[in-house]
Amino acid sequence: MCYEAIFPGAVVAPMERPEMLVNLTNDAWFGLSIGPYQHFAQSRMRAVEEGIPLIRSAGTGISAVVDSVGRVVTQIALGSRGVVDSGVPVALPRPPLYARIGDSLLAVFVGIGAALIIRRRKTRNAGDAV
Q: How far apart are CA 127 and CA 130, in angstroms?
């Protein structure tokens, strides 16, 4: 996976739980900008969402080993060359809630939040009219 790492729900096939995520990428087209940092943050987020460690090798960009809760175990900074010798962290024993439910969970929270805001505004406006 390369740019696929930026898409939630696109890194793990349904009903198949790998032991690790591998992100091979070349962020050269970003140059020395915020792009490589954003791309790394997005791929790191996939590790958190899935509860699976991430091994990221960027020809140009940020290479790293990230554990299943998003902590960076080791990394090679943008613009640096190097080699990482690290064990692979273990995946969480059970997928996190997001991995099991996906974006529908987000939709539920947004819906509940919107309903509470609307209800609060109606209550406030009804009190003003009295």
A: 6
Rounded to an integer, what distance in angstroms lies between the CA atom of residue 113 and that of residue 119? Answer: 10
First to last CA, the chain: 60
Contact by Cβ (8 Å): 65, 73: yes
Tokens of 75: 């990394």
d(CA 62, CA 59): 8
- Please, what is the Cα angle at 33 between 32 and 39, to 5 degrees? 110
How far apart are alpha carbons 23 and 1 in whole angstroms? Answer: 5
Strand, coil or helix: 73: strand
Tokens of 36: 């490589």
pLDDT by residue (tens digit) across 22-68? 999 888 888 888 999 999 999 999 999 999 999 999 988 899 999 99
Question: What pTM was estimated for this model as a whole?
Answer: 0.76
